Amino acid sequence: YPAASLALLDGLADVAGIDAHRGQLAADAAATRIRIDELVAENPQHQAMVTQLEEFVDQGLADGPVDAPTIDFERIPSGDELAAELQEFLRQRPDED
Q1: DSSP code, position 64
Q2: Alpha-carbon distance 28 to 6, whole Å?
Q3: Residue 31 has what DSSP assignment?
C-alpha cells in the first residue's frame, strides 16, 4: 500500500532528520487513493462500512484521548518462534491443488 510506505518513509525522515526522496511513491499513493475512492463509490456496502468506521472514529474522538497500550516486550515472540508458528499453521491447512 503506497500511502503506508510513504507515511513510513516520511516518519523515518523526520526521526533521522534527513530529506528522503519520495520519487514515484507520492504519485502512486495518490493514484491508489483515487482508485479506492472510486471502488467505494461504486459499492453501497463499502459506503456503509466507511460511514460506520467514520462514526466509530468520531465517537472515539468525542470520548477523549485514548492512552497508548503498554507493550510487554517479554511476551513478543522471537523470529524463530514466529517461523515455527507459521510452519505449524501451514502444516495444518488442507492441501490445495
Answers
A1: -
A2: 9
A3: H
**12-68 tens-digit pLDDT:** 888 888 888 888 999 999 999 999 999 999 999 999 999 999 988 888 777 777 677
pTM for this predicted structure = 0.52
Q: Is residue 25 part of a domain?
A: yes
DSSP label at residue 68? P
* C-alpha to C-alpha distance for 41 and 49, rounded to whole angstroms: 12
- Answer for the pair 33, 3: CB distance below 8 angstroms, yes or no: yes
Q: For the chain, how many structural domains are there in total?
A: 1
Residue with cell 507493550: 71
Structural domain includes residue 97:
no
Q: Which domain holds residue 21?
A: 2-62+69-92
